Structures are given as C-alpha cells and as structure tokens.
Amino acid sequence: MTIVRRTGPFSDLVSLRQAMDRLFEDSYVRPRWAGDADSAFLPLDIYRSSDALVVKAALPGVKPEDVDITVEGDTLTVSGEFREERSEDEQGYLFRELRRGRFSRTIQLPGDVSADQAQAHYEHGMLTLTLPKRDEARPRQIRITPVTDDATNVAGSDRRPSDGR
Predict the structure, then answer these.
(1) What is the SS3 assignment for 30?
(2) At 11, which helix (H) or strand (E)?
(3) CATH for 38-85+97-139?
(4) What's the pLDDT tens digit per position in 9-23?
(5) Residue 81, C-beta contacts closer than 8 angstroms, at least 6 positions apart
(6) Which of 107, 116, 109, 108 is nearest to 135 (CA)?
(7) What is the DSSP string of 92-149?
C-alpha cells in the first residue's frame, strides 16, 4: 500500500489546472489542422443574407485554378492544394506551421438554395461563394389593397346611423 501525502484540499485541482492549461496551449497556441494525414482542414465562414447563402474561405497563396468547388445534391465540397516551395535547406527550420498539401471541406447545404445559380469570386486569397435562395424560398411582401370609400358606402348602405331612438 502506498501512502499519499496531501498538502491541502485543493492540491489535486492544481494538477488538473496545469493539465487544462497544457491542453489549451497545445490546441490554440500551436494549432493542428484536423483531418487525415493527407488532408488539411479548411475553416469556413457561412452566413445567410436576405436572398443567399454565403460561404467564405481564406486560401492565401492558392491559385484559383487549384481550387475545386463541387455541388452534388445538397452537399458542397471545396478542395484543392496548398503548394509548397521546396528548398534544399530543410534543416534550418525551427517551426513549420504553414499549411501544405491537400485540403478539403464538405458541408451540407440547406434545401432552399439554388446551386445552379451559384457564383464564386476569388480575390486576395479570399474565396466567396454565393448560393442564391430559390425563388419559392425568398420572402415575399404581400400588399393589402385598401378599401375605397365608395365600396364602404355600398357595403354599408343598408345600415342607418343610430340616433339613439
């Protein structure tokens, strides 16, 4: 039997706190890209405007011809490759955190977008996909037709004003 000496009621919490600090430091200070070994994770911003779904992806250093955008049914896939410039001196690096290799991201599209009318713009390393909403999914304004005074008089002609008698 091993005797464990405890210095106080919070001694175990200190080690838990150190473990959590290490976890957050490893996750956020030195980010790792999710995905398999051959594929880097592509972070996206997705938002809805009044008439479209907009998908944005930062792809610095990637040429537009190296990006593939496909829509199959209600699935959008953005894929491509971060090309790396090879240098002969590979041993001089202290850190190598720039993304290299293939990337891919697949998302499920809502049913109210029209992929046939999608537009893609690529400027300064930022890819913007605009997928317009289908006409039947767009909100419509319904105007109320005002009733004219003539129609009110005709409709209320059989009514007589009450004079209290």
Answers:
(1) coil
(2) helix 11-24
(3) 2.60.40.790
(4) 665 556 777 777 777
(5) 62, 66, 101, 102, 103
(6) 116
(7) T-S---S--EEEEEEEEPPTTB-GGG-EEEEETTEEEEEEEBPGGGS----PPPPPPH
Model confidence over 37-96: pLDDT tens digits?
A: 444 578 899 999 888 999 999 998 888 998 999 999 889 999 998 877 666 566 777 777
- Domain parsing of the chain, residue ranges: 38-85+97-139
**Coil, helix or strand for 2?**
coil
DSSP helix/strand/coil, 82:
strand
Query: Which one, of 45, 46, 57, 49, lies nearest residue 132 by Cα?
Result: 49
**Is the whole model's pTM more than 0.85, yes or no?**
no
User: By C-alpha distance, which of 31, 15, 164, 67 is closest to 7?
Assistant: 15
State the SS3 of 31-78. Answer: CCCCCCCCEEECCEEEEECCCEEEEEEECCCCCHHHEEEEEECCEEEE
Nearest residue to 54 via CA among 129, 163, 105, 111: 129
- Cα 163 to chain centroid distance, Å, stands at 67
Q: Give the DSSP H or E segment for 80.
A: strand 75-82
CB 156 within 8 A of CB 148: no
